Amino acid sequence: MAEQEGITVKKENFSEWFSQVVQKANLADIRFGVQGFVVYPTWGFKIIRRIYEYLEEELEKDGHEPFWFPTIVKKSDLEKEKEHANFTPEVFWVTKAGDKNLDEEFALKPTGEAQIYPIYSLWIRSHQDLPFKAYQDRMFVYRNDKQTRPFLRGREFPFFESHDVFATHEEGLKQVKKDFEISTKVLYDKLKIPFVLFKRPQWDKFKGAVDTYTPDTVMPDGKRNQLASTHDLGQKFAKAYDIQFLDKNGEKQYVWQTCYGPGIIRIAAAIFGIHGDDNGLILPFDIAPLQIVIIPVLFSKKKTENDKVLKKCLDIKDKIEKLGYKVKVDDSDNNPGWKYHNWELHGVPLRLEIGPREVKAGKATLVERTERKKFEIKIKDLDKEIKKHAKSLDNEIKKKADDYFKNNTRVANSLKELKEMLKKHKGFVKIPFCSDDFDGEKCADKLKDETDGGNVCGVKAERPEKASGKCIMCGKKAKCIVYVAKSY
Ligand SMILES: [Zn+2]
Fold it and tell me: What is the CATH number of the domain that holds 39?
């Protein structure tokens, strides 16, 4: 039997809890041997793949088509982007093939703009080509991040990006709103991750964007987790890469662009970190790589009794499979207690326990992963019972996450209050602030120093709150309410 130990109490040391869950629940294997590069074993991979599927579904419903670009980007194309994005310090370069230096070096791409937009300038010719909405995903990008942590910061990470092109800025801004809706549908409705949608301050936006919008959540250690970003690119890249179209009057015009980038592994980190408990992962029913596990309780001394139980378990598995769920019988040699613990650690939503008593009565014991409540169900009602308990499990996950998040925003009206709150309180703190335009940058820098790493996340993107009073840093009249949190 494999060894089994408990995990750290989440509330006491979240960072340690997270590391242990990542390893013990087979989410990532960090023994690859190159910093920032991890292996995603089956369990972690299947969860990541499900996140991709949700996003693909929503983007395609919104009229996006998929495409695939190479892993590399040409040096000359990357340089055109320099003044806008400037990823250069973080770029990995390919300089040699065999023992010969390459004529033109190329980079492992840090993000898609510099490789996609030169091709857009060839593809987009007339107003009839617009709007053009496309995405690529299920590939890696590369950045030489100094600090790395599985699912939060890596040097190679799974990527998703949509790149949209429009004839007018209005259409671009409408797409920004559409991206918000996609974030809500996937992150909140499906994955039950609550977030605040921010407009980033000008000094902290993507350099190549007019404005950057991000759904941010807070992890249980109080740190901000940016789940995605939407950029209104205006015409900046259109001008850098010469993407023009002939309008209806036959005149050449630069296009307007937006892009959307959900952070796949950070979304996964939020699912693990926010929903999980002291027994391990908790996964919403639809995302779980295995939704129902059946545990045969084989305590009888008679082999025939045990065989009957096992046969019943396999029959039930077939039935459940036909209903379209992901199910397995754990008939390994481990004892039932070990199995319960193991599948709870992996976050399997529903468990069925079946022993001789249950076989005789045509019943099973069903356990929901969330509160580990037990229910006696009739085998003939399987279909109905699974639907009912999957729903109640999802509701419980959502309610718990909502409650956790609701209490996570405080208000501070002075630097002293903010400092104290950021020390004890794990979450966002709202403050009156002079400006989210470039004028506010000095105050934000000072705030970061004084609060030991507090970041101005931005103002609410939709229905920004009205400010009153004074900026807690400079004392000037406050123009906005900004949210502050520490970040990874
Ligand atoms: Zn100020």
Answer: 3.30.930.10
**What value does the mean pLDDT take over residues 393-400?**
98
Question: 398-414, pLDDT tens digit by residue?
Answer: 999 999 998 888 999 99
Same domain, 226 and 315: no
Letter for the amino acid at 234? G
Domains identified in the chain, total number: 3
Mark 241-273 as b/e (b = at least 16 C-beta within 10 Å): bebbbeeeeeeeeebbbbbbbbbbbbbbbbbbb
Domain of 259?
A: 14-275
Pinpoint the alpha helices (H) of 323-412. 336-345, 356-361, 382-406
**How many angstroms separate the alpha carbon of residue 408 from the centre of ligand 1?**
24
Asked if residue 385 and residue 413 are part of one domain, the reply reads: no
Six-digit token string for 218: 């807070």
Q: Give Dmax (Cα) for the chain.
A: 87
**Residue 2 φ then ψ, to 5°:** -70, 155
Q: How far is the CA of 117 from the centre of ligand 1 (A)?
A: 38
pTM for the model stands at 0.95
Distance (Å) from CA 454 to ligand 1 centroid: 15
- Calculate how far, in angstroms, residue 484's C-alpha sits from the geometric centre of ligand 1: 14
Is there a single domain that holds both residue 252 and residue 153?
Answer: yes
CA–centroid distance, 173 to ligand 1, in Å, is 29
pLDDT in tens, 173-206: 999 999 999 999 999 999 999 999 999 999 999 9
Does 380 share its domain with 437?
Answer: no
Distance between Cα 434 and ligand 1 center (Å): 4
Is the residue at 358 inside a domain? yes
In a domain? residue 398: no
| 83 CA → ligand 1 middle, Å | 28
pLDDT in tens, 216-239: 999 999 999 999 999 999 999 999
User: From the CA of 423, how far away is ligand 1's center (Å)?
Assistant: 21
